[in-house]
Amino acid sequence: MNAYFPSDAQRYKDRLLRVLRYISLDEDRKDLGHSARYNTKKLFLKGQGARPLIEGEFHSATAIDAIVPGLVPKAAGWGQYDNGETRIYLFLGDFHNMDFSAAPEPDHFMSQIADLHRKGFSPNGMFGFPISTVCGKLERTVTWEKSWAKSFTHQLKDVIKYDNETNEPVDEWHDRNRLYSIHPYLNDSAGHPGSFSRQLAYNDILYLCEKYAPLDSLEKYDPEKNVSVTGAYVPFTMKQLE
């Protein structure tokens, strides 16, 4: 079996042969069976110190490929081995030579994304995933929930917790929340003429400017227009622009 490393250096050959014995190959991958030792298929192998990152990628890629074959590189297996006191987790999958010289054909790509959402289904009718997955450095709390709102709440709480641990002091969280809310407010205003979300965005901009970059030429922030006072709610609606 041949495998591909970014450096493609010969010195990795012996190491590869040692680590492959720790990987449990997907039973459905007939092309990676005993006869595959004479195969010329190029594979991609990576190692990480976090099990959820590797195991989550394997199961996620496998689930996506089962619905829309070819959308993501096919996963072959995952495993682990100990290097002294350090445990290393391994992911093995088909190597995909990414071509950055041109953008993907949009019609074909978007049809695959549409198929993924149209054909994908939950194995038990609930929202969640059987194992933990990772987004960046954040390991998500994954449980099965009957409500999408409860399922999404787990992710939102994880993001807030990670943000509080990463960014100090905590009392600036509300200011960051104002800053991050400006973008969706303006997006909503641009797509829905007359929406009061534009005024919400403008008022938050005034608040942040007064606090961090005051200018006498600017209008004054109006606390009575704060969403916490008015209770303003911007419903999400789908409307075709004219």
Description:
Helices cover 40% and strands 13% of the residues. It has 242 residues and is α+β, with helices and mostly antiparallel strands. A hairpin with a 2-residue loop joins strand 5 (134-135) and strand 6. Helix 5 (173-191) packs antiparallel against helix 6 (197-212). The longest helix has 19 residues, at 148-166. It starts with 12 loop residues before the first helix and ends in a 12-residue tail after the last helix.
Number of helices: 7
Assess the beta-strand content as a share of residues.
5-15%
Strand elements, count: 6
Class from secondary-structure proportions: alpha+beta
Unreliable segments of 5+ consecutive residues: 1-13, 32-38
The protein's oligomeric status is: single chain
Measured on Cα atoms, how large is the radius of gyration?
24 Å
Mean pLDDT: 78
Euclidean distance between termini CA atoms: 57 Å
H and E order:
HEEHEEHEEHHHH
| Side-by-side strand order of the widest sheet | 1-3-4-2
Coarse morphology: extended
Helix content: 25-40%
Largest sheet: 4 strands, antiparallel
Could you give a short description of this structure?
With 242 residues, the chain is α+β, with helices and mostly antiparallel strands.
